[in-house]
Amino acid sequence: MVGHAFMGNAHSQAWRTAPRFFDLLLRPDLAVLVGRDPDRSAHAADRLGWASAETDWRRVVERDDIGLVDICTPGDTHAEIAVAALEAGKHVLCEKPLANSVVEAEAMAEAASAAASRGVRSMVGFTYRRVPAVGLARRLVAEGRIGRIRHVRAQYLQDWLADPAVPMSWRLRKDKAGSGALGDIGAHIIDLTQYITGRHITGVSALLETFVHERPLPGQSSPTATGGALSGAGGEGTGEVTVDDAAVFVGRFDGGALATFEATRFALGRKNAIRIEINGSQGSLAFDFEDMNVLEFFDGTDPAPTAGFRRILVTEPEHPYVAAWWPPGHGLGYEHGFVHQVVDLVNAIASGEDPAPSFADGLRVQRVLDAVQRSAAAHSAWTEIPADGR
User: Fold this and answer.
1) CA proximity to 71, closest of 134, 114, 27, 8
2) Alpha carbon distance, N-terminus to C-terminus of the chain
3) Residue 369: other Cβ atoms inside 10 A
4) What is the distance between the alpha carbons of residues 253 and 193, in angstroms, rounded to a whole number?
5) Which of 65, 104, 116, 291 satisfies CB 3.0 to 4.6 Å to 79 for a cystine?
């Protein structure tokens, strides 16, 4: 695993836990963790359950005993590491968004396609797909339970940057992150809505805004810091924020559905509110990650006197992934999506199948992110996303 901060913590927990609750066709061996600082990397490897630590990912990619590389680094390094790993015959799991640009994402998708012909698999980490309630929503849409889709409504709301005293981080630098709220959290709702509906976004009109343009530089952190938090203490001096703080855009899906999207890290009181509502010709679905074990379903064929949104507690063994965990009513949490991600990836590799979401799926999201940025730069001009990406 390359990187050991927030996502490194989440991924490590998943690699450790998956074989203890699920019958995996292969058993993961946590061989080596890679970080830039030798002391921090060694401490993180020991704490997170990795056998050893390394400071050069290139040496790891060349090792014969490594079969899979898990990339948990900032976006500006994804393409170089992923392409090198795939060309070296290593399976790859890469955090989202896939890259910082369409050009990088295209190169990664091309490398993944070439590697797949040699039996080397790759997957991008859109983990919220693995929430059981989201899986149920996708199933209901596929079964035609809400009919033809007319409206898609999606928000991802956080508040951890609302305080101007929160210090600079790589997530606020365009050269490292590619974009701000748009790519960091907006990418998730782009992927989720396309995943649930089975449809693709074909065009957008967008607004981007940066509310705080300068922030304190980060203070010194301990070599034993976990890196699990999204904020920290400021130090001396300030740095320029070069990404968006909020993104708002409308869009259209193939099939004709209208869509609205909002992503912000300035919504005070909202900690991790991923809100998806889909209205069809025969019913509706609604989901909020802050109540992640629940899916709301409205059946438009119910008689009017008793019609209403049905609150489904998605904790039954028949629901996606749930049978491996706890009795009904004993809810799952944030970390379980990462465990399910490991399960799907490992079993796909063992079965010789291409896992999803693929790098091609990640490229599709990247093209939407790019179209949003281009639209916002052109005063919200309608910007199309052709199916072939040209």
Assistant:
1) 8
2) 34
3) 25
4) 10
5) 104
